[in-house]
């Protein structure tokens, strides 16, 4: 743990690490992350089109920012189901730092889009955020409608509706081209994000402006947001995308730039990695739980073949063994 009075006197967490922080004078806490090699591994494995890779990278960042808030052994799962060209995205975070992700998409529909922003790729539907504490516990799930908003706004709505915590989120994705030893170009992905939450001692200060009720609804013109939270939001709005994705701008440097006036306290970073939880035993257990008819329908060329959608690991089983 360190107070960033001098940003050069701390150990930087580097890429693929989540850095928690606190700004006591503003009553805010949060986490920031910059992801690089892990993201390359996840995206290169599936050879997604560029727009799909960018969208999946955003969901990975959001999942990591939210999942690292878990204070117990468990899993945080983010899943979209929509009518857009990218019909499903599943990303999950397993404590303390395992991440996996995949996207299901229509390649022709993606190629036909005139604009490939997240809203166009996703279309309309829902995004579910699930917290799973494991066996013998009840899952907690929050659902946010995707109705023409991006993932940053989805996160704000989630915390507003389910936790009543004022929350601000910034996410960015970038591409880096470098020259290999052979002289050819090499492509790498980088992404980053910051999640900031207002957590004062009194809940009265956490009051937020009422959501607009639609046509004919009156505005709450008398609402005044807490000054500390207003300042924190204004500082978040000064973040450029390049500050979140440039490897030379470490998360700690960004935090210092944003909050040095008030004194920002950063904590030890938590490393995250591409780590799928699939295994031959788990797949075998799933197949054993199917009916004989369901297993028979899965047989091709005398074998039952299963490929993990997350990590592309392939498993083959003899149907006679069940």
Q: Termini separation (Å)?
A: 53 Å
Give the low-pLDDT segments. none
Number of beta strands: 16
- Helix/strand structural class: alpha+beta
For this structure, the CATH topology of the largest domain is Hsp33 domain
The largest sheet is: 7 strands, antiparallel
- What's the number of domains? 2
CATH architecture of the largest domain: 3-Layer(bab) Sandwich
Integer-rounded radius of gyration: 22 Å
Run of helices and strands:
EEEHHEEEHHEEHEEHHHEEEHHEEE
Measured as a percent range, the helix fraction is 25-40%
Q: What can you see in these coordinates?
A:
The chain has 322 residues and is α+β, with helices and mostly antiparallel strands. It folds into two domains: 225 residues, Hsp33 domain (3-Layer(bab) Sandwich), CATH 3.55.30.10; 42 residues, Alpha-Beta Complex (CBS domain Like). The strands form three sheets. Strands 1, 2, 3, 9, 10, 11 and 12 form a seven-stranded antiparallel beta sheet that branches. A six-stranded mixed beta sheet has the order 8-7-4-5-6-13. It has a three-stranded antiparallel beta sheet with strand order 14-15-16. Strand 14 and strand 15 form a beta hairpin. The model has no long low-confidence stretch (mean pLDDT 88).
Write the layout of secondary structure elements.
Layout lengths: L1 E2 L13 E7 L4 E8 L1 H8 L5 H18 L7 E8 L3 E9 L3 E8 L1 H6 L5 H5 L1 E9 L7 E8 L3 H13 L3 E13 L5 E14 L28 H10 L4 H5 L5 H9 L5 E2 L3 E2 L1 E2 L5 H9 L3 H6 L1 E2 L2 E5 L6 E4 L5
């Amino acid at each position: 743990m360190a107070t960033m009075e001098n940003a050069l006197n701390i150990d930087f967490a580097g890429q693929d690490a989540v850095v928690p922080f606190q700004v006591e004078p503003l009553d805010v806490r949060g986490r920031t992350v910059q992801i690089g090699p892990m993201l390359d591994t996840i995206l290169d494995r599936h050879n997604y089109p560029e727009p799909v890779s960018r969208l999946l990278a955003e969901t990975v960042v959001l999942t990591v920012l939210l999942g690292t808030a878990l204070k117990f052994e468990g899993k945080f799962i983010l899943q979209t189901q929509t009518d857009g060209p990218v019909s499903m995205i599943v990303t999950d975070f397993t404590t303390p730092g395992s991440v996996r992700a995949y996207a299901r998409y229509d390649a022709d529909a993606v190629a036909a889009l005139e604009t490939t922003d997240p809203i166009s790729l996703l279309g309309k539907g829902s995004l579910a955020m699930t917290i799973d504490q494991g066996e013998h516990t009840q899952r907690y799930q929050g659902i946010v409608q995707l109705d023409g908003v991006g993932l940053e706004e989805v996160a704000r709505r989630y915390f507003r509706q389910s936790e009543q915590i004022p929350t601000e989120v910034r996410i960015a994705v970038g591409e880096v081209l470098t020259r290999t030893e052979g002289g050819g170009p090499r492509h790498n992905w980088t992404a980053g994000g910051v999640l900031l939450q207002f957590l004062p001692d009194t809940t009265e200060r956490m009051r937020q402006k009422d959501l607009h009720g639609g046509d004919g609804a009156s505005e709450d013109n008398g609402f005044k947001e807490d000054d500390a939270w207003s300042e924190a939001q204004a500082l978040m709005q000064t973040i450029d995308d390049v500050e979140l994705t440039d490897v030379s701008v470490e998360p700690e440097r960004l935090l210092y730039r944003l909050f040095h006036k008030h004194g920002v306290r950063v904590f030890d970073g938590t490393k995250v990695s591409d780590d799928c939880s699939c295994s031959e035993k788990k797949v075998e257990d799933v197949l054993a739980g199917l009916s004989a008819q369901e297993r028979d329908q899965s047989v091709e060329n005398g074998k039952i073949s299963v490929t993990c959608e997350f990590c592309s690991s392939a498993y083959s089983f003899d149907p006679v063994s069940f």
